[in-house]
DNA sequence: GCCGTTTTCGGCCCGACTGTTTTCAGTCG
């Protein structure tokens, strides 16, 4: 599946690093390999599929003849000769050393030349023995910074979940708002683009000249700060105690704020593309504005810059240079789904199985905090014994309670659903006679996660009472990769049978992943966003689910739970 | 190594901050 893409992206980014380390004036070759790695990583389909369908690899931007040949070589033989050769030119694990904050190619080259550093162990030893400090251009602080960088890499995971990053960023924003006189403040970077995982946190503010020093002082003195990495008038960077995150704060003038937002929201690839467009008109974009020579053409808002480039404003979630600029040029940007479009939540658990809250508490909370028309209670089925799964009789009792509660609130707000287990042989954990009484059935795999589960899920979709497949790949970010699926077959079956696929909005799931969301939409498959709530605090994950869907270019039409219940019912009935 | 509505050759984003330097190279985003 996506195996080739991941492997090739890693190989090409390694090759880029090696060329950079060799430094034979090949820095642009290195950049080309970096661009190619990113291009492949972002592909919605697998490179092997592109080859089968006689499409040309060379049509992918940043993949030319030479790299396309290497892709073909890899798929045919399982390796790339040039890569094997390159690896021999540098010590093993050398590429990993580049990941240390503060260590770039020039530093590494010098260290290798002067001290014959080959591994992280060599490096630590040389740093601690004082040898490094003796080298011209190095000093006490540089040595300490590299040691800190190594320590940070060991203690912090690479990236944290979006929801966790949003929480940290939110605290900082509130703190700054309270203590300082700010005009505007925005969280930008990959948080604004709603990536699933986050590396650094970027925050922008505008404020009066006279306030700036105070703002930076406050920012670097906050309780949550573990270390001040850099501090200046326009830019400071701190590391947080929680999660070891780097947080950047940058201060701009009011008239620059749009340009700064654009610049620091990224992605890098999106910005580079915009800059090239500007260059073609002999203009220049930087974080302060769009310029023609010294003359500023735009900069106060993002819209003003896009507009001067002849483009409509592009939503942050789309800014990955995955075709959004081309779509914008043709005025064909999709009208992305928004949180306000959502009419209900189709996946949640109560105390009847492994949820923390009674149905009554769930209902009360949702009616107070969300503008939904319906929620579906989908507790686990009987084979999920560890989660208190329910059999047909118990679910029948639960449905009686739901009817009573609906009577009490005088509407049909609560729907009768179930998350039925897909058993290892592809059959379901509840009888068809029971399932046909349900308003909504989501079917999920919870056991035997380490095998190909394509056939299992295909046969579940053949059941006329299964309306959606829950967390289709079973991944848990940072813990479990998820099982393999022939996604093409899943999509075919989904559209043939009228079964929806879930975007499970738990921050550690976000399953389907973005490129599959986009592939499903292209295939005309219906999607649902479900929070899979087990406690009241999780309902808010719908916002992240919507952000995730937007990254996959979803419109409201592509998401079933943007519709009124009558329409959802139609979807259910059509399959039966 | 990639790319091209000026180019098949000659470009390839650009500014802030740090540390070690006396004017700048390296790193980062």
Strand order of the largest sheet: 11-12-13-14-15-16-17
Mean pLDDT: 90
Radius of gyration: 26 Å
Helix run count: 25
Q: What characterizes the major β-sheet?
A: 7 strands, parallel
Primary descriptors:
seven-stranded parallel beta sheet; DNA polymerase, domain 1; Beta Polymerase, domain 2; five-stranded mixed beta sheet; 576 residues; DNA-binding; alpha/beta; Beta Polymerase, domain 3; 45% helix; 25 helices
Characterize this entry briefly.
This protein is an alpha/beta fold and 576 residues long. The protein contains 25 helices and 17 strands. Helix 1 packs antiparallel against helix 2 and helix 1 packs across helix 7.
Question: How would you describe this structure to a colleague?
Answer:
By secondary structure, the chain is an alpha/beta fold. It folds into 4 domains: 3-155, DNA polymerase, domain 1; 160-252, Beta Polymerase, domain 2; 256-329, DNA polymerase, thumb domain (Beta Polymerase, domain 3), CATH 3.30.210; 339-575, TIM Barrel, CATH 3.20.20.140. Helices cover 45% and strands 13% of the residues. It is built from 25 helices and 17 strands. The strands form 4 sheets. The chain has a 7-stranded parallel sheet with strand order 11-12-13-14-15-16-17. Strands 2-4-7-6-5 form a 5-stranded mixed sheet, sandwiched between helices. It has a 3-stranded antiparallel sheet with strand order 8-9-10. Helix 1 (3-22) crosses helix 5 and helix 1 (3-22) crosses helix 7. The two termini are 31 Å apart. The protein binds one DNA strand of 29 nucleotides through residues 19, 26-33, 35-36, 61-67, 101-107, 136-142, 145, 189, 200, 202, 229-237, 248, 250, 263-264, 266, 268, 271-272, 275-276, 279-280, 284-288.
């Amino acid at each position: 599946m996506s195996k080739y893409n991941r492997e090739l992206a890693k190989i090409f980014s390694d090759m880029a690093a090696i060329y950079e380390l060799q430094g034979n004036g090949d820095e642009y070759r290195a950049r080309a390999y970096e661009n190619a790695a990113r291009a492949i990583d972002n592909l919605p389909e697998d490179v092997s599929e592109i080859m089968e369908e006689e499409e040309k690899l060379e049509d992918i931007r940043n993949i030319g003849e030479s790299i396309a040949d290497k892709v073909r070589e890899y798929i045919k033989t399982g390796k790339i000769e040039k890569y094997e050769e390159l690896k021999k030119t540098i010590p093993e694990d050398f590429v990993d050393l580049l990941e240390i904050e503060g260590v770039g190619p020039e530093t590494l080259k010098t260290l290798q030349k002067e001290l014959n550093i080959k591994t992280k162990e060599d490096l630590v030893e040389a740093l601690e023995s004082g040898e490094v400090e003796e080298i011209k251009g190095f000093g006490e602080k540089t040595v300490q910074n590299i040691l800190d960088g190594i320590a940070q890499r060991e203690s912090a995971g690479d990236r944290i979940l979006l929801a966790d990053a949003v929480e940290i960023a939110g605290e900082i924003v509130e703190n700054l708002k309270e203590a300082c006189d700010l005009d505007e403040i925005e969280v930008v970077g990959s948080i604004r683009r709603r990536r699933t995982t986050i590396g650094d946190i970027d925050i922008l503010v505008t404020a009066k000249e006279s306030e700036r020093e105070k703002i930076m002082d406050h920012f670097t003195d906050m309780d949550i700060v573990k270390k001040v990495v850099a501090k200046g008038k326009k830019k400071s960077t701190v590391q947080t105690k929680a999660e070891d995150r780097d947080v950047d704060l940058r201060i701009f003038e009011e008239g620059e704020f749009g340009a700064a937002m654009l610049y620091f929201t990224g992605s890098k690839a999106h910005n580079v593309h915009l800059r090239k467009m500007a260059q073609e008109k002999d203009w220049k974009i930087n974080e302060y504005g769009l310029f023609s020579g010294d003359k500023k053409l735009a900069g106060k808002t993002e819209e003003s810059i896009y507009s001067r480039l002849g483009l409509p404003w592009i939503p942050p979630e789309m800014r990955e240079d995955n075709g959004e600029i081309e779509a914008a040029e043709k005025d064909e940007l999709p009208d992305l789904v928004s949180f306000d479009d959502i009419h209900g939540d189709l996946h949640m658990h109560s105390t009847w199985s492994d949820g923390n809250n009674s149905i009554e508490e769930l209902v009360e909370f949702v009616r107070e905090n969300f503008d939904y028309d319906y929620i579906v209670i989908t507790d686990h089925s009987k084979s999920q014994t560890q989660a208190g799964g329910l059999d047909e009789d118990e679910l029948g009792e639960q449905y009686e309670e739901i009817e009573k509660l609906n009577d009490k609130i005088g509407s049909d707000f609560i729907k009768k659903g179930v998350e039925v287990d897909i058993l290892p042989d592809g059959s379901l954990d509840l009888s068809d006679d029971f399932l046909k009484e349900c308003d909504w059935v989501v079917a999920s795999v919870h056991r035997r996660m380490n095998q190909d589960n394509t056939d299992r899920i295909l046969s579940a979709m053949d059941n006329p009472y299964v309306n959606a497949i829950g967390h289709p790949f079973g991944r848990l970010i940072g813990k479990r990769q998820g099982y393999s699926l022939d996604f093409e077959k899943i999509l075919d079956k989904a559209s043939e049978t009228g079964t929806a696929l879930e975007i499970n909005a738990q921050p550690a799931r976000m399953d389907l992943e973005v490129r599959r969301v986009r592939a499903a939409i292209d295939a005309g498959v219906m999607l649902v966003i479900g929070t899979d709530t087990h406690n009241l605090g999780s309902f808010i994950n719908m916002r992240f689910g919507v952000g995730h869907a937007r990254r996959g270019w979803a419109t409201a039409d592509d998401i079933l739970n943007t519709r009124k219940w009558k329409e959802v019912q139609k979807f259910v009935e059509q399959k039966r």
